[in-house]
Amino acid sequence: MMEASDDFCSDETMQQLLAAAGGDSQRGVEAIGGVLEEFPGDPRLHFLRGSLLIGLQRFIEAHAALSRAVELAPDYHIARFQLGLFELTSGEADAAMATWGALKALPAGHPLATFAHGLEALIADRFEQCIEALRAGIAANDENLPLNRDMELVIAQCEALIAARAPSREEVDRTDAVSATSFLLRSLKD
């Protein structure tokens, strides 16, 4: 768990920044910029800034901000998870898995570790395992409900991929017919 230090802005300032960012990401980024000048070592500010920059599609700056948050506080687990998720959605699967590596040290059943495990299964095209892990993570996660919604979207995409991979009725009938024919021929040989 990340511990506060003198390099951190006050909780009241964080609440004000969250309120400023609530409806306007650009306004939030600007507000954070001023506070970051005073508290450049506060990983929460870098994390919030990175999250808002993603929404503004300023991806290079977002990656730098999220990376800085993790660099400043390697045990800032949500920042680490989100950095890995950003890397994954940017097509950097290996980087995502490396970023999530430290989450494996979390206690068994920790939502972020479970989500990372599920997304690693997704990378390997193990969609059923991905769904199972993400559902377990959602069940365990009562701290970050928006993250649950993101994982539900991943589950929906996996279910769509599984459905697309499923054989058509005609393919099933043909397979059943072949299997029945094979059975019949084998029984005649015996």
Strand-helix topology:
Blueprint: H1 11-21, H2 25-38, H3 43-55, H4 59-72, H5 77-89, H6 93-100, H7 111-123, H8 127-140, H9 145-165, H10 169-189
Please give a handful of descriptors for the protein shown.
single chain; 190 residues; mainly alpha; Serine Threonine Protein Phosphatase 5, Tetratricopeptide repeat; 2 domains; elongated; disordered C terminus
Structural notes for this entry:
It is built from 10 helices and no strands. Helix 1 packs antiparallel against helix 2, helix 2 (25-38) packs antiparallel against helix 3 (43-55) and helix 4 (59-72) packs antiparallel against helix 5 (77-89). It has helices at residues 11-21, 25-38, 43-55, 59-72, 77-89, 93-100, 111-123, 127-140, 145-165, 169-189. It has 2 domains: 1-93, Alpha Horseshoe (Serine Threonine Protein Phosphatase 5, Tetratricopeptide repeat); 106-190. With 190 residues, the chain is an all-alpha fold.
Helix share, percent: over 70%
* Number of structural domains: 2
Category by helix and strand content: mainly alpha
Distance between the termini: 68 Å
Count of DSSP helices?
Answer: 10
CATH level-1 class of the largest domain:
Mainly Alpha
**Major sheet:** none
Could you say what the CATH topology of the largest domain is called? Serine Threonine Protein Phosphatase 5, Tetratricopeptide repeat
Question: Would you identify the CATH architecture of the largest domain?
Answer: Alpha Horseshoe
Tell me the β content: under 5%
Write down the secondary-structure element order: HHHHHHHHHH
Shape: elongated
Radius of gyration: 23 Å
Low-confidence stretches: 176-190
CATH superfamily of the largest domain: Tetratricopeptide repeat domain
